[in-house]
Amino acid sequence: MPPVKKRPRSYDPARTRAAVLAQFGHVAEAVRGLSPEQLSRPTHLGEWTVADLAGHVAWIADSLARGLDRPAAAEGRLLPHDWPFTTVALAGKIADAARETLTGAPVAELYERAGARLAEALAAHGDDRVLDLWIGPMRLGDFLVTRTVELVVHTDDLNRAAGLEIPFDRQALAACTRLLADALAVKAPGGAVEVRIPPFAVVQCVEGPRHTRGTPPNVVETDPLTWIRLATGRTEWAAERDGARVSASGERADLSALLPLMA
Question: pTM here?
Answer without folding.
Answer: 0.93
